[in-house]
């Protein structure tokens, strides 16, 4: 097992009893009956607002750049003009591929999913730089020059990268996954949909004969929350139709949903991961004189849900992981009479290549809009186990720290604060409205890194989903 997959020794790095320096500055005593004390609950919300507002005064982000629709390279020009720490607010449009290299940026589509780009690359950020991309649809078009790219690439990022409500899918031919993460150690995905391309026969790029995973990790660490990841479907066997000299494209196995190399860590909460289906076998071909030219072949195997190499660290909490369906066998060669049954089907893919650590407990979720105007209330919905005390963690910094003993990955920064906001009711859903202050003088935007926590009746603290909220000046 990868060293970081081991259960974290005591003291627990997120337990306020074992690390006094991490106690919330305004944290109140926790009572099992918080919801029966309205005044006290209001006090918690005031405390949370104070934590956010007091820190914000010392953390001014900079300018907001607005892109009001359009296309082509308009969005990339705004990215190039932005300084590190700026926010690019996009009001829809259909743009070419975009690149963020060596600087911290926040890109938010408003409304979500109204902005489409033909590829996304984030690269070469340092440890202090934080990148957030929210609400984009990324669809890499088929290449016409044989030089093919992934839909989304995160490469050599030492700083945090957060992808929120991002949809990425590759049309064939592809040759790469929907998301590739390489040598990046602080990546989190929130409610993303990532579909690897299926295989097709093409003379342009033989690599496209192989289907592609939804996500590939190389020397990286990724946490995924409520994401849907699917591997591409294998190639169906194809035979040319002339009476003589047929050419056969053999069927292929489906791709894995997620590929994790031996030096990577993957942790998912909720959502689903599915391997691609195997391709169907080749049907027999006969020539015009009923002689067998091509025999039928068996179907191919489905891809694994997670192809996790030995030495990697893979963990899940409430994530459905399924191997791809088996490909059907082709028709056998019975040229002078009826077929007596088809060729055998392939095998269904396994859920995982190697064991995946199953984290204890149930998923703990937090939902928030990715953007809110300063001075307006921020609505937060937390979902957890009825009777547990809900806490909200907030920071202006991000990090990636596995705390599998507490059922997840710690995403809020070391300067974060946790404030109790109530007890989960019987429905398991708790909604609160948190006031937001105006942005500091001279700042047009700032980002809040949020995370859900829960405290059960035994005093055990668990870590849940994260979220990033961009607070922008009301003038935008």
Number of helices: 2
**Main sheet makeup:** 10 strands, parallel
SS content category: mainly beta
User: What is the number of beta strands?
Assistant: 40
Fraction in beta strands: 35-45%
- Look at the structure and give the mean pLDDT: 84
Low-confidence stretches: 1-40, 54-60, 144-148
Strand order of the largest sheet: 1-3-6-9-12-15-18-23-28-30
Tally the structural domains: 2
Using the CA coordinates, give the radius of gyration: 25 Å
Shape: globular
Please give the share of residues in helix: under 10%
What is the terminal-to-terminal distance? 48 Å
Describe the structure.
The chain has 476 residues and is mostly beta strands. The chain folds into 2 domains: 3-53 and 362-472, S-adenosyl-L-methionine-dependent methyltransferases (Single Sheet); 65-358. The chain has 2 helices and 40 strands. The strands form 8 sheets. A 10-stranded parallel beta sheet has the order 1-3-6-9-12-15-18-23-28-30, covered by helices on one side. The chain has a 9-stranded parallel beta sheet with strand order 2-4-7-10-13-16-19-24-29, with helices on one face. A hairpin with an 8-residue loop joins β20 and β21. The two termini are 48 Å apart. 52% of the residues are buried.
């Amino acid at each position: 097992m990868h060293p970081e997959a081991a259960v974290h020794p005591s003291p627990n790095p997120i337990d306020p009893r074992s690390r006094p320096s991490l106690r919330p500055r305004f944290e109140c005593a926790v009572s099992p009956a918080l919801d029966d004390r309205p005044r006290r609950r209001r006090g918690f919300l005031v405390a949370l607002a104070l934590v956010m507002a007091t820190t914000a005064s010392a953390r001014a982000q900079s300018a907001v750049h607005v892109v009001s629709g359009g296309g082509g390279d308009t969005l990339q020009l705004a990215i190039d003009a932005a300084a590190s720490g700026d926010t690019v607010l996009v009001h829809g449009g259909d743009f070419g591929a975009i690149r963020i290299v060596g600087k911290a940026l926040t890109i938010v589509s408003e409304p979500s999913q109204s902005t489409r780009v033909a590829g996304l690359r984030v690269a070469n950020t340092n440890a202090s730089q934080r990148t957030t991309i929210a609400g984009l649809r990324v669809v890499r078009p088929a290449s016409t020059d044989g030089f093919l790219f992934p839909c989304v690439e995160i490469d050599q990022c030492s700083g945090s990268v957060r992808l929120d409500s991002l949809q990425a899918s590759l049309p064939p031919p592809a040759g790469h996954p929907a998301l590739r993460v390489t040598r990046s150690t602080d990546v989190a995905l929130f409610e993303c949909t990532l579909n690897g391309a299926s295989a097709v026969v093409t003379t342009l790029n033989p690599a496209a004969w192989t289907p592609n995973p939804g996500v590939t990790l190389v020397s990286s660490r990724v946490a995924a929350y409520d994401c849907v990841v699917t591997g591409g479907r294998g190639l169906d066997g194809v035979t040319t139709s002339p009476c003589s000299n047929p050419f056969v494209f053999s069927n292929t196995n489906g791709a894995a949903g997620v590929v994790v190399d031996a030096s990577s860590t993957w942790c998912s909460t909720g959502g689903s991961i599915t391997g691609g289906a195997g391709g169907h076998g080749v049907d027999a071909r006969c020539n015009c004189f009923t002689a067998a030219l091509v025999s039928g072949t068996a179907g191919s195997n489905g891809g694994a849900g997670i192809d996790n190499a030995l030495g990697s660290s893979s963990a899940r909490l409430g994530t459905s992981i399924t191997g791809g369906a088996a490909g059907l066998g082709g028709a056998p060669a019975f040229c002078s009479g009826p077929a007596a049954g088809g060729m055998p089907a392939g095998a269904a893919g396994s859920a995982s290549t190697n064991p995946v650590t199953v984290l204890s407990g149930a998923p703990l979720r937090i939902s928030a809009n990715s953007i809110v105007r300063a001075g307006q209330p921020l609505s937060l919905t937390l979902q957890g186990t009825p009777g547990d005390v809900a806490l909200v963690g907030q920071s202006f910094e991000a990090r990636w720290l596995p705390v599998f003993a507490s059922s997840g990955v710690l995403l809020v920064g070391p300067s974060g604060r946790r404030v109790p906001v109530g007890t989960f009711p019987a429905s398991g859903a708790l909604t609160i409205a948190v006031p937001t202050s105006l942005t500091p003088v001279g700042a047009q935007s700032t980002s809040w890194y949020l995370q859900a926590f829960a405290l059960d009746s035994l005093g055990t603290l668990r870590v849940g989903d994260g979220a990033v909220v961009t607070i922008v000046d009301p003038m935008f």
